[in-house]
Queue: 2 jobs
Job 1
Amino acid sequence: MTTQPITATRPVSSADPFSYDVLEDPLPFQADLRERGPVVYLEKYDVYAMGRYAEVQAALTNWQTFQSAAGVGLSNFRYEKPWRQPSLLLEADPPHHDAPRAILTKILGPREIRRLTESWAADATELVDTLLANGPEFDGVADLAAAFPLRVFPDAVGIPQEGREDLLPYGDHVFNAFGPPNELVEKGAQRVAELSASIAAKCSRNELSEDGFGSQIWAAADRGDITEAQAPLIVRSLLTAGVDTTVNGLAAVLYAFATNPDQWRRLRQEPALARVAFDEAVRWESPVQTFFRTATRDVQVGTTLIPEGQKILMFLGSANRDPRRWVNPDLFDLNRDPSGHVGFGFGIHQCVGQHIARLEASTILNVLAKRIRSIEIMGPTRRHHNNTLRAWESLPLRVQLA
Ligand code: EJD
């Protein structure tokens, strides 16, 4: 008896998910990826890619087979990122992952959400009122989607004012660097030493305010839950993962409403939908499009045998638009139940800050829903290209006050 050469039926693609065209509009690439099969070999990078919901969700749940500890970027960060020690959360698996994860789960949990709710609502009101006092036209990215997280999140972590302008460019480079060493990474490399030094400096105990997330991480070191060497790296995780992601999550929901006016009317009738709206926008846009896992053993997916050590691209954005899982996946629809989307990941690494992100979003949406009758796009929108993020550079908006 002979065995079939498994690669004979292996779906292959020569496309580049990190090319200019795909970053500008990833949807055609994603549809093609899903059609080719449950897992597709990407020739250009010698990696596998999953674009269907079922396989992405299953792989994210199976950290034993699809590990994070070898890095969640295309290349092995241990050799290629001298400017960034591996994250204790993102680039770790059990057992090492567990103590840092438990600490952040606690710090970013319900108690802090309650503590921040009122003061963030006041901040959102002031920001929106000041903005609208300037007239009905503004940039949804700079003036709102970036302005609000940059106003509330660094304070919540407890970092000083100085150098906050480094947060977005640092995150932008980290998220680019999960992808291949293309032009985006080359451009970012010019400032990476300066930016990582700036971010690292904000993570030490004496730089952090008394009551923020940062000093609570240090308190965990005092209790012995983590070591003193681990504390600054966990603060760094907040500063890396908590800014660009929420900025683009808010930009996504603003764009979704500006292009779906009936859904805006719906939200205004029923403001309690703000949370669903944000999750639906995260599903629809998937601000975090992709990251990688590494096979810990030979593993068969569909007809393809993925060899041990291979990188596998998890296409969150594609899974979130898979018609096998979602009815009319391309519609932004507040009547749908978006739960189960993989925009925050899935499994043990699922976004630990998602409650904070939802609080930021629902806080700003609640204020906007009160003040604004309609939102429209008033000029050319511009994408911001990033190897991992689906991001906006500019959303020129015009609103009508309520
Ligand atoms: C991330 C895809 C860190 C870190 C954690 C999570 C991310 C980035 C960095 C958010 C990845 O621990 O430094 S979405």
Job 2
Amino acid sequence: MTSKPARSIRVVTLYDDVMNVYADRGNEIALRVRAAEHGVNVEVTSVSLGDPLPAEADLVLIGGGQDREQRRIADELAARGPALRAWAEDDTAMLAVCGGFQLFGRWYRDASGTELPGAGVFDVTTLAPGPGAARCIGDILAAAQIEGVREVVGFENHGGRTYLGPGARPFARVEYGRGNNGEDGTEGAVFRNAIGTYLHGSLLPKNPALLDWLIAAALRHRYGAGTPEAHIDMLPAPYAERAHAASMAVARRRSPKFEPVVK
Ligand code: GLN
């Protein structure tokens, strides 16, 4: 047996003290555990209000937050937009959830009508239709549109409706639940190795294929595709697989099967 090379990925968490609804910080915990199983060290830099961004990152995580929390970070995050967009163009892996996803878009007009600027990593825009409109809430099951990842499962709870621009493609297609806007069947967005999604859960503890996808992308960013350091073995993830299967059953039982809205 050949010995595995020592390797590590540089992870940046953004505003995890502000943006952490539905325990989105669980994504970082799942990442640390799974990376260790693959023999990958994780070096985390936690960046919050007023902190500088490090020079480089292989993987960026940001969680969800309500409008109030989003207002606290929006201007600063938007100012970091060109740096984050440059990272995304350089194939840094990213996972932006819900309120974080909205602010990784171009702008978010919140429920009070205030327009918050976005970082522009994704060509998406989000509108909150106002206090009378129903929120998109419930278990969600969607077919991921990235290689090696099939169904993803999670929990969505958002007032904002997100629409994809020509420069964005959907992360997933909704099977049960509502997704970006409840109308077009899209869920989230993908730009190179950056993923935006409405799925909380926490998401990564019960979607092991997606977790491995992010780790593999981060390793490729650090070491280059095809290098021994960037290779990860197919490892079983028995607990996560069981959580995934149980969550799929829950979403099928409790959530409406997605029907596109015909206007
Ligand atoms: N404030 C946003 C909305 O309701 C995001 C909420 C969240 O992150 N759960 O649309």
